[in-house]
Specification:
Elements lengths: L9 H10 L28 E5 H14 L5 E4 L1 H5 L3 H8 L5 E6 L2 H9 L6 E3 L8 H6 L2 E5 L2 H11 L6 E8 L7 E2 L3 H10 L3 E7 L6 H20 L6 E3 L3 H6 L25 H4 L6 E6 L2 E5 L4 E2 L5 E2 L4 E6 L16 E4 L2 E8 L4 E6 L9 E5 L8 H8 L15 E4 L3
Parallel strand pairs: 1-19, 2-3, 3-4, 4-5, 5-6, 6-7, 6-8, 8-9
Antiparallel strand pairs: 1-10, 10-18, 11-14, 12-13, 14-17, 15-16, 15-18, 16-17
Helix pairs in contact: 4-5
The protein binds pyridoxal-5'-phosphate (PLP).
């Protein structure tokens, strides 16, 4: 069983099922999420993630406040930025501020539905025909993003017995995905004529430069006006990823569509907003100390012999590396929390990370290290980024196979 979960809500049952087969924790983290004693039988060959439901719910509430009370469509693409899309969706299901979630891969949309999420799921990408029936059965909102995708969805609509909810995905200037905005109206007309299709959402994505984003909003609003004039329903309108929702109130439309903010990070250029709307880091990346050795002057660590030991030094090895999604730049100044102290990272390889514990240490094999989490400013995503001079998007992109544990609260 997963710790600290209430047993009353059915979706928790799903979460518990997801984790059955994974060694259960037997101790509850204290205030700092650390365990004071060595712990037997954990994930000795890989790191794990701990997720806090209360922190995700807090962030959803704060984001809605940032957007003047508008609902939130949480972007869970890339496995919820590496944190577990099924788990994050289930935690957000209970938020009154969360309207639904958005993903890019068809298989993730159906996995989130099968995982127990009850609210709308928007697929912002294409789908494989082999998955089409399942997407329809699972009530996934399919995006019409081109003439070709319209044809594909029309063909699907002719084969199913139920009305398919679709979203008009408009390219107002990002140039990456969506119907070129001049073509949107005729595509919307074709959809409106099809009794098996219903436009439930209309959306686009804003770019970061403010002047151009405003031009995009005007393009979007002109299309909406034309649809309104022709009595074509367009459903819920949304445009704004995190940066735009903080930057331009006109971008809020009917709903906002953030990713990074949900995970407790502000786009770096908008850190000033963090004071006004504090978010919580809703996860911890942890790993066990699996090896501890005293190295001698002249010894080196890593393939490139990057780190040179100058005096007797205890070096801990953690079974986590860049292949797990831990940023390899960590060896340029990041810190790790072990017990109640921070220690410098001195080497990151694909599957292992080394931490220097100094000339004397009380740390033992089996102790738990927190690499990223809310417990110290230095190991939050922003704190970590500041230490290694990186980008706060990078280090929350963990490998899908990392085990996740959900907690009601940390
Ligand atoms: C279409 C779309 N909307 C919203 C987002 C969320 O962006 P952010 O994480 O900057 O809030 C993304 C992320 O890449 C996206 O592709």
């Amino acid at each position: 069983m997963v710790e600290n979960q209430t047993s009353t809500q059915p979706r928790r049952h799903f979460i518990a099922q997801c984790f059955s087969g994974i060694t259960a924790l037997t101790l509850t983290p204290n205030l700092f999420g650390q365990f004071n004693k060595p712990i037997a039988q954990r994930y000795h060959s890989q790191p794990w993630l701990e997720l806090s439901e209360s922190a995700y719910l807090h962030n959803a509430t704060q984001i809605s406040k940032m957007a003047g009370g508008k609902p939130v469509m949480a972007v869970l693409k890339n496995n919820a930025y590496g944190l577990g899309d099924v788990q994050v969706a289930n935690m957000l299901d209970g938020s009154p501020q969360v309207f639904g979630v958005a993903v890019v891969k068809d298989g993730r949309a159906t996995a989130i539905r099968k995982g127990g999420f009850t609210k709308p799921i928007l697929l912002m990408g294409d789908f494989d025909e082999a998955n089409a029936q399942e997407l329809v059965e699972d009530d996934i909102v399919l995006s019409v993003f081109s003439q070709a995708s319209l044809k594909k969805i029309q063909a699907l609509a002719a084969t199913v017995q139920k009305r398919i909810p679709v979203a008009l995905y408009i390219d107002t200037g990002l140039g990456r995905m969506g119907i070129p905005y001049e073509e949107t109206f005729s595509i919307a007309q074709s959809i409106a004529k099809n009794e098996n299709l219903e436009i439930v959402q209309t959306f686009s994505t804003l770019t970061t430069p403010k002047d151009f984003a405003k031009e995009q909003i005007q393009r979007f609003n002109r299309i909406i006006k034309k649809l309104e004039d022709q009595n074509i329903s367009y459903g819920v309108k949304h445009l704004a990823p995190s940066y735009s929702l903080l930057d331009i109130s006109d971008s809020h439309q009917d709903m906002v569509r953030p990713g990074i903010l949900v995970y407790g990070s502000f786009p770096l250029a908008k850190m000033d907003q963090a004071q006004k709307y504090p978010l919580q880091v809703p996860f911890r990346l942890k790993a066990l100390v699996i090896r501890l050795e005293k190295l001698k002057p002249g010894d080196t660590i890593g393939f490139s012999r990057f780190y040179k030991v100058e005096k007797d030094e205890w070096i801990a090895t953690l079974p986590v590396g860049w292949a797990d999604g831990y940023d390899s730049g960590a060896e340029n100044g990041a810190k790790v929390l072990l017990g109640d102290k921070l220690y410098p990272v001195v080497n990151v390889n694909a599957s292992h990370t080394n931490v220097s514990l100094g000339t004397e240490t009380d740390i033992k094999v089996g102790y738990v290290a927190t690499l990223i989490g809310p417990d110290r400013p230095e190991i939050t995503p922003e704190g970590f980024a500041n230490l290694i001079d990186g980008n706060n998007y990078l280090q929350i992109n963990y490998k899908e196979s990392i085990p996740k544990k959900t907690y009601e609260t940390f």
